[in-house]
């Protein structure tokens, strides 16, 4: 019996030593990365996991009541129904005039109106009542600016970038979590929440939130309502840089549809935003005239922009006069172009949508991209450059990379306009007569075949 006890004790000691060795090795990983990584030391007893959303909520309210000097709350948003939480903050501020509250939210999500209010509208009365104690900041990603900001619709624009940190600090207590401050996160949306009792780590995260707040818009009292204002000395992304680049990829076979979503969103907004005075101009070019259905429908039914399309003439198609059955590929594109042309007329947009064909002797045409001109402007402010052809192949079958460029730089805008003009120099208008020419007549069987293999064109 004594031998068994000694053996068990030996095995237990070895297991404990093995764990300690692994911990030491793990710590060494972080030590090897110093001084880039900050390091704090605490006792394990000061770290408490919180296991449920309701317990998380109770801890939040309890620490709001107890905080004497500072409360820092950072999250994507505050639910517009969280009146009890705001009232708890109000009571704490009222009873302790020296208490400071710093709240950091995302500006896109925090100002999105649900129809019953937003995070900003909920916090505005608190800010108005305690202007010297409360700071509310709204971070706005610098990646969403200029024309891209104008054309990106609400909610979708949140995909460009958000303030996604979740930090809840009360004096010397910190709760780190992935949960936002809203009803579902306090009731039936399970997340993780870990509480730390350490002034050092709490102050570190408060300083981090403050640093981001200093680079954010501030919620300010504007009489009967609120406004967002950037702080003094904070660089406006539009002022600091005059050109933004937004790289996108499309890998249909791998389930990555980024470029498709963004391009459709941008096109839909530009082509159908009737709030702007005047009509924008959009030029789209592809060596292969075969718009995916959603692109095609958005263009055909444009209400807010004039559209110029530049396609390859049959002679400028790389398959022109090729051997075998591939020589019928240019006629297939002619048929697709003719259908589009007729659909635009049927939609009453013959005057708004114009098609041109590139025809330069001895040359083929493979250019692709789009240019956007604001209303009453002769210079573009946006273009795309990359591999997509706006067709089925690009969306469904191939791997594509494209870059959206938005600029206010006059020299660059002139250069982009000159680029487009150089392409259009060899482009000729498409009319009804174009499709009546003898050389543009398409064999009947090509029509059926083109529909069958359209996703391969």
UniProtKB/TrEMBL annotation:
Any one of the GO CC terms: mitochondrial membrane
SUPFAM superfamilies: Phospholipase D/nuclease (SSF56024)
Annotated Pfam families: PLDc_2
Keywords: ATP-binding, Lipid biosynthesis, Lipid metabolism, Mitochondrion, Nucleotide-binding, Phospholipid biosynthesis, Phospholipid metabolism, Repeat, Transferase
Top-level class of the enzyme under EC nomenclature: transferase
Location of this chain's protein in the cell: Mitochondrion
Example GO molecular function: ATP binding
EC number per UniProt: 2.7.8.5
Gene Ontology BP terms: cardiolipin biosynthetic process
Stored Gene3D superfamilies: Endonuclease Chain A
InterPro entries hit by this protein: PGS1, PLD-like_dom, PLipase_D/transphosphatidylase
Domain of life per record: Eukaryota
Catalysis: reaction(s): a CDP-1,2-diacyl-sn-glycerol + sn-glycerol 3-phosphate = a 1,2-diacyl-sn-glycero-3-phospho-(1'-sn-glycero-3'-phosphate) + CMP + H(+)
Keyword Mitochondrion (UniProt): yes
Primary residence: mitochondrion
PLD phosphodiesterase domain sequence ranges: 159-185
Presence of the UniProt keyword Lipid biosynthesis in the record: yes
Pathway info: Phospholipid metabolism; phosphatidylglycerol biosynthesis; phosphatidylglycerol from CDP-diacylglycerol: step 1/2
Record PANTHER family: CDP-DIACYLGLYCEROL--GLYCEROL-3-PHOSPHATE 3-PHOSPHATIDYLTRANSFERASE, MITOCHONDRIAL, CDP-DIACYLGLYCEROL--SERINE O-PHOSPHATIDYLTRANSFERASE
Record's function text: Functions in the biosynthesis of the anionic phospholipids phosphatidylglycerol and cardiolipin.
Family: Belongs to the CDP-alcohol phosphatidyltransferase class-II family.
Official protein name in the record: CDP-diacylglycerol--glycerol-3-phosphate 3-phosphatidyltransferase
């Amino acid at each position: 019996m004594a031998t068994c006890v000694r053996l068990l004790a030996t095995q237990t000691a070895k297991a404990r030593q093995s764990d300690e060795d692994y911990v030491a090795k793990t710590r060494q990983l972080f030590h090897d990365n110093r001084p880039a990584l900050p390091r704090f030391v605490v006792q394990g007893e000061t770290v408490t996991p919180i296991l449920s959303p309701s317990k998380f909520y109770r801890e939040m309210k309890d620490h709001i009541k107890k905080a004497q000097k500072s409360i820092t709350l950072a999250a994507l948003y505050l639910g517009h129904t969280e009146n009890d939480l705001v009232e708890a903050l109000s009571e704490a501020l009222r009873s302790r005039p020296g208490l400071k509250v710093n709240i950091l939210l995302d500006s896109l999500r925090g100002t999105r109106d649900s129809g019953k209010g937003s995070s900003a509208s909920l916090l505005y009365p608190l800010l108005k009542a305690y202007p010297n104690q409360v700071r509310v900041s709204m971070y706005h990603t610098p990646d969403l600016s200029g024309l891209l900001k104008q054309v990106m619709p609400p909610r979708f624009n949140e995909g460009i970038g958000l303030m996604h940190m979740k930090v809840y600090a009360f004096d010397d207590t910190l709760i780190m979590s992935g949960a936002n401050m809203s009803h579902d996160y306090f009731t039936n949306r399970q997340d993780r929440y870990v509480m730390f009792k350490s002034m050092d780590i709490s102050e570190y995260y408060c300083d981090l939130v403050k640093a981001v707040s200093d680079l954010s818009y501030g919620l300010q009292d504007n009489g009967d309502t609120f406004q967002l204002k950037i702080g003094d000395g904070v660089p406006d992304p539009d002022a600091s840089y005059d050109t933004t680049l937004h790289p996108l990829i499309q890998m249909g076979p791998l389930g990555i549809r980024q470029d498709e979503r963004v391009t459709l969103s941008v096109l839909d907004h530009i082509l159908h935003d009737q709030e702007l005075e005047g009509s924008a101009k959009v030029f789209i070019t592809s060596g292969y005239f075969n718009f995916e259905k959603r692109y095609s429908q958005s263009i055909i039914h444009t209400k807010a922009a004039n559209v110029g399309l530049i396609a390859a003439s049959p002679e400028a198609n790389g398959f022109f006069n090729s051997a075998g059955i591939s020589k019928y590929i240019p006629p297939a594109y002619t048929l697709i172009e003719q259908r589009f042309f007729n659909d635009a007329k049927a939609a009453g947009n013959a005057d708004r949508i114009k098609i041109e064909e590139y025809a330069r002797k001895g040359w083929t045409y493979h250019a692709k991209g789009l240019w956007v001109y604001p209303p009453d402007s002769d210079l573009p402010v946006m273009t795309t450059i990359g591999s997509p052809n706006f067709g089925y192949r690009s969306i469904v079958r191939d791997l594509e990379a494209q870059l959206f460029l938005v600029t206010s730089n006059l020299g660059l805008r002139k250069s982009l306009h000159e680029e487009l003009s150089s392409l259009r120099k060899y482009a000729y208008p498409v009319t009804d007569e174009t499709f009546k020419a003898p050389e543009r007549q398409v064999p009947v069987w090509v029509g059926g075949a083109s529909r069958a293999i359209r996703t391969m064109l």
